[in-house]
Amino acid sequence: MLEVKGLVAGYAGSEVLHGIDLVVNDGEGVVVLGPNGHGKTTLLRAITGLLPPLAGQVLLNGEDITRWRADVIAAAGVVHIPQGDLLFPEMTVLENLLMGAYHGPTWAERNVRLGRVYELFPWLKERGGQLARSLSGGERRMLALGRGLMAKAKILLIDEPSLGLAPLTTQQIYASILTVKEGGMALLLADENANHVASLADRVYLLETGMLVRVGPAEELLHDKALLESYLG
Amino acid sequence: MYDTQIVQAVWGGVLFGSVYGLMALGLTLVWGAVRLLNLAHGAIFIVGAYAAYWVVSSLHLPILVALPFGVLAAAVFAYAMHLVFIRPVIGKPGFDNATLVATVGISISVSAAALLIFNPEYKVVPPELTGSYIVAGVQINYQGLLVIGTSLALFAILYLFLTYTRYGMAIRAVSQQMEAASLMTIPVVQTYGLVIAISGGLAGLAGVLLSPLFFLNPQSGFNPMIQALIVTIFGGLGSVRGALVAGFVLGVFESFVEVFYGVAWALPGVFILIIVMLIVRPNGLFGISEVRRL
User: Does A108 contact B at CB distance below 8 Å?
Assistant: First the structure.
């Protein structure tokens, strides 16, 4: 279980998040919905140690991981699939995937895990030797997702998986995330499109100007058209 | 006569090329992975050489025992430099200036320390291999062959290490996308330390292997480092393959100019070649732009 308490985070001189409280239970799909520029990415970066929080706590199964280094947090099973893919451009598709399983105990079973990722995205297998920088936008996103799935995660944090993608690719991406969730994986998904996440979400938080303004079961919040429109426009 | 000149030029060129390559390898590796222009590379070179010299002259042990000791001393020295001077400024604004000043400072301090401890006299580090044979009137010494073989072998080993091993891939990952690497559980700062230590070991090895061909004094690290810088820029900063090819291109070119036009033309010739090359290919022979490293 991932628990965030009173999290304050931001960049030099400008606070972006003003005290976030959030919980993701085991196996639960939690979506943070909010328009661009309201702190979704900052929230995920603060949780996974890329942007050390200014105040507040992040707990993983009760253990305080707030001040841990990003690589140590990842090794503990909090796996972050960042916005904009952040692939290794001069490495091949296969090498990118293998880096996802870098952590010692995971490395030993990298081939089993590769097999599972290939089931979700079979093309990754055929094009393993291709350099990541030569992939299309949709392919890059799938590779980033596949690379994240190579890790042994307790919870997956995914930042706007459909940003800038064509509708067909978007569908494919969310379908594969759903497959992963149905395997029992806990998810924390940041998104700005309520329609995309309906099938994945158990609970929804609405984020506005760095604060969580509403929380509730997905079926309740995602069907409240008037509410969503007022927040997401 | 003509045969002798050709053999002389080729032998000298391949030997120079290996020497250049050996020095440039560590420099280009650190630049590629850490974006650190390590101006202490020549200082680390003499740390290795003096450590080996000390083992031979004070402990009276054979040079083959001193060789690994010199490599290790240089690697440890480089790692200590990382801990004290590089690590505190990683990811901070001003990293470039801080590390440039620090590595120049280390370089000066090491020369001064060597002067105090070993005095300014030229020291003779014994070769690992003695003897030679004559080809077309040119003396081919075994130490030179050892340098060439070691240089080629190290390039191959480093290439295989970076391409196929878990740690090697992690080094490339860190150099290409540092943030993503940390999300893959790769400890970025330790990886930097590993790269700097490997690079230091390579500089130390060069120091021990090359000192018998030249001589060792507190300034001996300077020229090899300048040559390494030239080779690295010629080959494309950060490119391992570029350092290898550039080392041999420059070495052979310099050697041929020397043999056929005289020693006085060697250095100007090399600089003309580099100027022309940088006009044609500003990113170096292997054209590695800002985003393409290792």
Answer: no
